[in-house]
Amino acid sequence: MRVSEIMIGSVAAGRPDESLESARDRMEAGDIRHLPIVDEGGRLIGMVSDRDLLRARAFRPPPTLVSEIMAKHVQAIGPGAPAAEAAQLMLDFKIDAVPVIDEDKLVGIVTATDFLSLACRFLRLQGQ
Q1: Where are the domains of the chain?
Q2: CA dist 25 to 29, 43, 93, Å?
Q3: What is the pLDDT of residues 37-64, one digit of tens each?
Q4: How far is it, in rounded angstroms, from Cα 32 to Cα 18?
Q5: I need a surface site. Which of 46, 60, 113, 123 has the fewest CB within 10 A?
Q6: Residue 60 CA: distances (Å) to CA of 24, 33, 124
Q7: CATH architecture of 3-127
Q8: What is the pTM of this model?
Q9: Which residue, among 14, 21, 13, has the nearest Cα to 63 in the 3D structure?
Q10: What is the pLDDT of residue 59?
Q11: For residues 123 and 17, what is the distance between their CA atoms, to the nearest angstrom?
């Protein structure tokens, strides 16, 4: 099974110059926990999680831009990679989401929830 078979293809992305308030609003409205950050060319340059937004509230003075809190060293994977590689990245780096890039452009995201859905489908098939 390939990453492209389980990834979310129409992924919301943020910009480094976006306000934290705007990013938080979009994440809440879309019920998403991870927001890949892209540059003007659509290349992945960072990631913001709902936990990053929670932590930012404790800073004094509080940060105002996504670029101030985004993780800059992001583990990413290609759509043709085995899904097991994405799962291993999540385990190795203790992360809940891996952006999917093709030729340096963001094309999707695979999350722990995607793997849980896959596990549920598998377990249901085993029970039949």
Answers
A1: 3-127
A2: 6, 23, 27
A3: 999 999 999 999 999 999 998 888 888 8
A4: 17
A5: 60
A6: 18, 24, 49
A7: Roll (3.10)
A8: 0.89
A9: 21
A10: 84
A11: 43
